[in-house]
Amino acid sequence: MTAIEFLVKETPNMHWEDAYWADLYERAKKMEKENTDNKVIHFAEWLTKKHSYTLMALYEHFEEEFYNEEL
User: Fold this and answer.
1) CA-CA distance, 35 to 43, in Å (whole number)?
2) Angle at the Cα of 8 (from 7 to 12), degrees rounded to 5?
3) CB atoms near residue 25 (< 10 Å)
4) Which residues contact 69 (CB under 8 A, 6 or more apart)?
5) Which of 9, 27, 54, 61 would be 50's cystine partner, CB 3.0–4.6 Å?
6) What residue numbers bound the domain in which 53 lies?
7) Prediction pTM value
8) Position 11 in a domain
């Protein structure tokens, strides 16, 4: 469960369907995902001692090779 999902669950009387709160909820979920993605990238950099550009190039190569093999 994410922090955003926990907040919604713990505040059942909040009007999350209201346009203002619904917009904030969606923006918060997007920020939460971006933060998770950034943590994964930083962990990979730390683990491999490589810069994110190198990691992205390696990932693109992996993705091309992996998906081409499946077709």
Assistant:
1) 12
2) 115
3) 18
4) none
5) 54
6) 17-70
7) 0.54
8) no
In this structure, the number of other CB atoms found within 10 A of the CB of residue 69 comes to 7
Look up tokens 């971006």; give the residue: 34
Instruction: Answer yes or no: is 9 within a domain.
Output: no
Tokens of 59: 């990932």
- The helix/strand/coil state of 63 is helix
> What six digits make up the tokens of 22?
């619904």
In the structure encoding, which two tokens stand for residue 69, read together? Answer: 């093999």
| Total number of domains constituting the chain | 1
> In the structure encoding, which two tokens stand for residue 36, read together?
């998770």
Distance CA 19, CA 38 (A): 29
Which DSSP symbol is given to 16? T
The tens digit of pLDDT for each residue in 13-65 reads 888 889 999 999 999 999 988 888 888 888 888 888 877 778 788 888 888 88
Kindly provide the residue ranges of all beta strands, DSSP E only, lying in the chain, ordered along the sequence.
none
